[in-house]
Write a structure and sequence with these properties.
Layout: E1 6-11, H1 19-33, E2 37-41, E3 57-60, E4 88-89, E5 95-96, H2 99-108, E6 113-118, H3 120-133, E7 137-141, H4 157-178, E8 180-186, H5 193-201, E9 206-208, H6 216-228, E10 234-239, E11 251-253, E12 259-261, H7 264-276, E13 279-284, H8 288-291, H9 296-315, E14 320-325, E15 328-333, H10 334-339, H11 349-356
Parallel strand pairs: 1-2, 1-6, 6-7, 7-14, 8-10, 8-13, 9-10
Antiparallel strand pairs: 2-3, 4-5, 11-12, 14-15
This protein binds 6-O-phosphono-beta-D-fructofuranose.
């Protein structure tokens, strides 16, 4: 009889809701069904840089997932969206290639295969490591931004949309009580998926996404028209990567020297106040979109992806990402997934629906 396999699993990139549910599915399938050992690697590839590497791992047993983990946000393994091993930052500011150390750490754990749960950036790094080190890799898509190609859904996205929709549900009554324009800034990096989905579901009057140019005059005229029609409030959703009217991205400098999106909501609210004379307020949802309890949809996607990823290993099919397409689970080459960046489709049903509902979505050629 064959020895039971030893597989590693790690979460990489920004966290999101549903990661623990994905880990649970991997462990229940691998250990529960196939009788394999599952080794949790902490903090993405950083865990493979620890020495001795065995001291920093987590043996993942099915019993660990009996309780609350299916429902809990975050990731019990920890994660990082910094520390690319090919361009690893040292404290003195210099950068080195530590990829061989990561591969050596993987080898020391005597693993037969690796499941990486991550977005496009993480998957690109993991694939490069896999090619360099001969690692049998399977990936699970996760990103609240939902910008990974060839999968209709990624783990974390549904919860982010739900949080943003709930925010609009809670902003509407207070907006109406005070006759205000409420601006809600949501995440999504360079894609407007969260903004347009939550905006439609939450009854927004204007939705600004990076894919569609807008004008302040256009936003203002929508708000003024609503006022003139007797409406005493407006709801505006803006995706974090939307630029100022002058074309500048609004970003914040972090301690690490990295620039992250944030602040377009405040810019917009100030300009709307000037243009319309309305009282405006801003809510920046930020990491609330990532840390909460996963929705039913995210738990389902995490479970479906986790089980299928383990099955791919059992079938000996590697360098593939599990994906959701046409109401079923499929798998595609990782290279295709990371090459196929997915922005909001300007000819798709959401843009058509938003415009059909009379939502201001930006300036379209007439
Ligand atoms: O990619 C996920 C995401 O949440 C983006 O929507 C956002 O721009 C970014 O990560 C925030 O990253 P950080 O956790 O480093 O602030």
């Amino acid at each position: 009889m064959d020895e039971p396999k030893r597989i590693g699993v790690l979460t990489s990139g920004g966290d999101c809701a549903g990661l623990n549910a994905a880990l649970r599915a991997v462990v229940l399938r691998a250990a529960g069904h196939y009788g394999w050992h599952v080794i949790g690697i902490r903090n993405g590839t950083a865990g493979l840089l620890q020495r001795p590497v065995e001291a920093d791992i987590l043996q993942l047993e099915p019993g660990l997932f009996d309780g609350t983990l299916l429902r809990r946000g975050g990731t019990i393994l920890g994660t990082t969206n910094k520390g690319n091993p090919f361009d690893y930052p040292l404290p003195d500011g210099s950068r080195v290639d530590r990829s061989d150390e990561v591969i050596e750490g993987y080898r020391r754990l005597k693993l037969d295969a690796l499941i990486g749960i991550g977005g496009d950036g993480s998957q690109a790094i993991l694939r490069r490591l896999a090619q360099q080190g001969g690692i049998d890799l399977v990936t699970i898509p996760k990103t609240i931004d939902n910008d990974l190609g060839h999968t209709e859904l990624s783990v974390g996205y549904a919860t982010a949309v739900k949080v943003a929709t709930d925010a609009l549900d809670q902003l509407q009554p207070t907006a109406a009580s005070h006759s205000r324009v409420m601006v809600l800034e949501v995440m999504g990096r360079d894609a407007g998926h969260i903004a347009i989905n939550a905006g439609i579901a939450g009854g927004a009057d204007a939705i600004l996404i990076p894919e569609i140019p807008y004008s302040l005059a256009g936003v203002a005229s929508k708000i003024v028209a609503l006022k003139e029609g007797g409406r005493n409030f407006s709801l505006v959703v803006v995706a974090e990567a939307v630029k100022t009217e002058g074309g500048e991205a609004v970003k914040q400098m972090q301690g690490s020297g990295v620039l992250t999106y944030g602040g377009i909501g405040h810019y917009l609210a100030a300009r709307i106040a000037e243009e319309t004379g309305s009282e405006t307020r801003v809510t920046v949802l930020g990491h609330l979109q990532r840390g909460g309890m996963p929705t039913d949809r995210d738990r389902l996607m995490a479970s479906i992806f986790g089980v299928r990823a383990v099955d791919l290993i059992a079938e000996g099919r590697f360098d593939r990402m599990v994906a959701w397409s046409g109401r079923t689970v499929v798998d595609i080459p990782i290279s295709e997934a990371i090459a196929g960046y997915k922005a909001v489709d300007l000819d798709g049903p959401l843009v058509h629906t938003a415009r059909g509902l009379g939502i201001y979505l930006g300036e379209f050629p007439s």
